[in-house]
Amino acid sequence: MIGARAVVALGLAQLVAWGVSHYLIGVFGPRIVADLGWSRAVVYGGFSLALGVMGLASPVAGRLIDRHGGRRVMPLGSCAIAAGCLGLAAMEHVAVYAAAWVGIGIGMRLTLYDAAFASLARIGGSAARRAMSQITLFGGLASTTFWPLGEWLATQFGWRRALLAYAGFALCTVPLLRQLPAAPSPQPLATGGAAPASTASAALPAAHARAAGALYAVFVASTSFLVTGITSHLVALLGELGLAAATAVAVAALFGLGQLGARVWIAAHAHAMHPLRLNRLAAFGPPLAFAVAVAGAGHAAWAALFALAYGAANGIMTITRGTMPLALFDPAGYGARVGRLLAPAFFCAAAAPYAYALVVDRWGARGALGVSIAVALGALLAALRLGRLAPPRA
Questions:
Q1: In this structure, what is the dihedral angle of CA atoms 3, 326, 340, 85, given to the nearest 10 degrees?
Q2: Residue 190 backbone phi and psi in degrees, to 5
Q3: For 185-214, how does the pLDDT look when each residue is reduced to its tens digit (9 = 90+)?
Q4: Could you give the residue ranges of the DSSP H alpha helices within the chain?
Q5: Whose C-alpha in 104, 202, 321, 344 is 20 to 30 A from the C-alpha of 216?
Q6: pLDDT in tens, 236-276
Q7: What is the distance between the alpha carbons of residues 142 and 150, in angstroms, rounded to a whole number?
């Protein structure tokens, strides 16, 4: 039901959408600070604002995809990202800057992984798991592609014209997203309230669904807080631990390679593994990776092992974030239910860069890694509890 053409088109759209939205601030933030004289808190606060808007928009976005499908809804997100990039290119005042990030935040919620996963679930139900893992292979290359591309564009033409190009790239994803097959509207439940036979086996009994939803929300919120906080400060943390600036940048780049390698492994060998068990396996990665970073502080080899291990674990958990609900709940209500459960994760992600900045200022890089270990252990406990809900034989 989900053909290769649709998977490739959606994957390419993910690569571009992530590159021109989520990774935008990493390239253009320092230039905006230098050119306009604004504080880093104001400039990077725009990205936090966008993540908070994603949380506010999450329930509505899920319902829209359930009702109309990704083929109609996701292109609207691409247009919103394009409008936000145009606003950033033209802005001179903080109010316009904030408004542009609001548009980008709405666009990210309608186009990035969570929207794509909901769209695939609406089309293919539980059979969408493999397609979900496949599109993340493309998205995993977004920073690798758009950080150097954005740097080149900004160097050659200035950051404002580079953002105009980003708006054009966002609009180029519209025809790609239109390649998604149209899915029939979800059918209402029978009079007796029973789930359709094709999806009931993939869902938990109603008595356990609420507890599972709470555990899922805690897990995703914890991991979102970690990855946003760590990646926004990764180079600085590695430098404070004793690595030279060039080495810190090179080690930080291994995070993306770890993500991509883990996703290739899943697509090739582990796509059939039960998502709750796969998630439980991946959840051991972050606390171990942070422990390695603390133990090997200042040593490039240990830091590289940390970046690869944490990247690999996060690469897997990005996929299970989308596939676990297919094992826990009825896929017919995927978008609306997951949209509600993801809202706290977006708010946690929005707070993470600022929270990590406070921790680093007060306790240094080791303190930030200690906090990370504590949060990662909490996520691991939630993953272990969720893992118990997997059937004896998947």
A1: -30
A2: -65, 165
A3: 554 443 344 334 344 344 556 667 788 889
A4: 4-20, 24-36, 40-68, 70-90, 94-111, 113-124, 129-139, 142-157, 159-177, 197-200, 206-240, 245-265, 275-283, 285-295, 300-328, 334-387
A5: 104
A6: 788 888 888 778 878 887 888 898 899 888 877 766 688 89
A7: 11
